[in-house]
Amino acid sequence: MTKWRVALATTVLASSLLVGCGVQGDEPAEIKPTPGVRTHFSGIVVDYGLGEGPILCSGVVALSDPPQCGGYPLIGWDWEVIEHDEFPPPDDNKSPENITRSGDYSFDGTFTENEQIEVFPETITASKSLAR
After folding, report:
1. Are 54 and 46 in contact (CB under 8 A)?
2. 114-129 as b/e, with b when 16 or more CB fall inside 10 Å?
3. Phi and psi at residue 65, to the nearest 5°
4. How far is the C-alpha of 59 from the C-alpha of 41, rounded, in Å?
5. Residues 102, 67 contacting (CB under 8 angstroms)
6. Which of 79, 77, 81 is nearest to 118 (CA)?
7. d(Cα 117, Cα 73) in Å, to the nearest integer?
8. What is the pLDDT of residues 92-119, one digit of tens each?
9. What is the mean pLDDT of each run of 10 residues along the chain (132 residues)?
10. Residue 65 and residue 130: Cα distance in Å, rounded?
11. Which residue in 2, 76, 89, 126 has a CA-CA distance of 20 to 30 Å to 107?
């Protein structure tokens, strides 16, 4: 094999390894709905009971008990009328307000300019229970 072929084979192998390892572009671009347009959403909704309210998980979700994620705050979500799983607060904070609530849902809403989702409550359906 000539030096040229060895160099070409090495370059091709190195390029394929870099692509396979995800060195470039391994994070997909986040797609956000257009503000003000009614959109169908589905996914895990969680409220950690810390006074911040429920969020629709976005990106990576750790399916622990309770699920762990970040996401978009939901406006108009009412746990009193929505079937959900509950997880007790940690031992160091037994206040009933600190119960974590979650579930897997689909619903319609509008994305706001400040990256919140205004929910149409009549469209909420529970997809499945997350409790194991």
Report:
1. yes
2. eebbebeeeebeeeee
3. -110, 100
4. 14
5. yes
6. 77
7. 6
8. 656 666 789 999 999 999 999 999 999 9
9. 43 37 47 85 92 92 90 95 84 69 95 94 82 47
10. 8
11. 89
User: How far, in Å, CA of 88 to CA of 21, rounded?
Assistant: 40
Instruction: Give the type of residue at 22.
Output: G
Q: Which two tokens stand for residue 20?
A: 């396979």
Q: Where are the chain's structural domains?
A: 28-128
Q: Tell me if the pTM is above 0.85.
A: no
**Total Cβ atoms within 10 A of residue 54:** 25
Please give the angle made by the CA atoms of 38, 57 and 29, to the nearest 5 degrees.
80
- Provide the CA 59 distance to its chain's centre, in angstroms: 4
Encoded tokens for 72: 């978009």
* Residue 35 identity: P
Which distant-in-sequence residues (6+ apart) come within 8 Å of 74 by Cβ?
45, 53, 54, 55, 56, 109, 116, 117, 119
Q: Which is nearest to 103 in space by CA: 71, 67, 75? A: 67
The token pair that represents 69 in the structure block: 């994620």
